[in-house]
Amino acid sequence: MRKSIVRLAAKSDEIPTASTADIAFLLILFFMVTTVFRPTVLRILYQLPDAESTERILIRRNVSYIWVDKDSRIYIDDHIVSVDVLAGKVAPKIWDNPELITMLNVDQDVNYGVVDGILDQLKEAKAFKITFATEFRR
Amino acid sequence: MQLREKKKRVYGIPTGSMGDVAFLILLFFLVSTVFTKDKGLKMLLPEKTTDQEKVTVVPENIITLAINPAGEVKVKAAGHDEYLTRQEYDRIRGIVEEKLLERDTLLVISLRASKEAPYSSMVHVLDQVKLAKVTTADGRELSARKISLIPTSEE
Q: What is the secondary structure of chain B as a DSSP string?
């Protein structure tokens, strides 16, 4: 019986680029969805206290921040504010997102009276979910 | 005329560069990923109450932790009345665990800090309270859930 001669298909040596565009679009889509813009970088001098029972907050979109630096200056939304106006600043955020957690980044040497004033304002704004920012201690 | 055989076209999705692309993406994420820094001690504040809405708790169910401007803590509970210096904070955990076994879920921690007390002292005391965990005889895990931060105006 005669064997049929089969020609081997020549393999292409070129780098395939057909899927590059799809991948690029996927990446763009990913960044469009996940990017959170932060227009300014705060330069606040503060040292957080440490605690063994520190827990991580996993959902970052539900977090609002308040900073208090070494000199007891209170920062919110990139502005230095006095303690009396805090409720007015936080209340609209709670109205938008009732699940909001207020993160208190307070310097460890600040007097508790400052923190107490902030807590009072947060109660007024109905921002009951708070977290005292701390560093892990082993 | 010479007859030439036509070249056969190869159909198929080329996958040769897929590995390179995947590694590039991996490298990108390795370089650019910033892990979340949001961490701390969670608390739930109470609503502002009027005098009529105030709840009275039996004194036996309360541990009062009062922090003075020097950072010393006065622990006051039924059968306990002692001063702890900043180096002795780790004893708070033992006291809370002991009372948890005694009072079960009824235990209330009342944390009072002076206006001049350092914030770090308050956090360290709160940390010790949160660390207290016990297992009851019937196998339940207990921790201090009722923690009350007393406003400095009520000093």
A: ----PPPPPP-S---TTHHHHHHHHHHHHHHH------EEEEEEPPPP--GGGPPP--GGGEEEEEE-TTS-EEEEETTEEEEE-GGGTHHHHHHHHHHHHHHGGG-EEEEEE-TTSBHHHHHHHHHHHHH-EEE-TTS-EEE--EEEEE-GGG-
